[in-house]
Amino acid sequence: MSEENIEAVDTSCCASCGVAEIDDIKLKNCTDCGLVKYCSGACQREHWPQHEEACSKRAAELRDELLFKQPESRHDGDCPICCLPMQLDRSKSIINQCCSKVICEGCHHANMLREIEEKLERKCPFCRTLVPSSKEECNRNMMKRIETNDPFAMCAEGLEQHRKGDYSSAFRYFTKAAELGDVDAHGQLAGMYHYGQGVEKDTVKKMHHLEEAAIRGHLDARFNLGSEGWNNDNNESAVKHWIIAANLGHDESIKALMSAFKRGHVKKEDLAAALRAHQAAVDATKSPQREAADEYNRK
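Above: the chain sequence. Below: its structure as tokens.
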């Protein structure tokens, strides 16, 4: 909807009955588009046939603005100990079941060396709880976190159930975790709707969860949205998604952009800017502590 049309809407009175907002009458915005206001649910329902087209159009515009906004950071954020962005390789992140905190390999390695040198008991580097001595104790800790509605723990349990092939249980855990705000759970749900695991295949719901994850900085979900666009001949949308992911350090998105550039779908200056941002994002994850951990693990 054009700015002229948006400005022309009178939001000082109910769009249906025309009653003005005064002390004892409070108007509420249309939650989908925010273009008009209503004094009651009955007025909103009565006005819907007239408002539906404009509402749907504006809601789609707002969704696109949100979807293609560059996130400030990735969904996994910073290591809670060294406060540097988490490493892009997820295998270099350490999960602590006691507190559901994920720390970088560098901080985990530094803590391990300190405990060895000072002959200390092994403890969680973040919450200082003693490290579980068995798999059973780890599982008990995880279930305690789940009982407190910890979304990270729920997503982790969903992954475990999915690994076992119990897709129905995995779907329940992922759904609850996503409702509580876990971004990875949205990505997992997208995959389950794509493959029909524990649920009927549903492209609309798959795309919804991919978008929810991408909006919150999930780079794999963002890359997959770009691939979906590319495969459906929506090259402009694909490039936008890949640039956003590349800016935050996603390697596969850089490769996709370079391929798209060779086919004439990416401007030279846009690719150059993405390459610079990608390198800066990668460099931001580096530290002497993390390099020491990498060297130790290569031995």
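Residues 97 and 139 are 8 Å apart (CA to CA).
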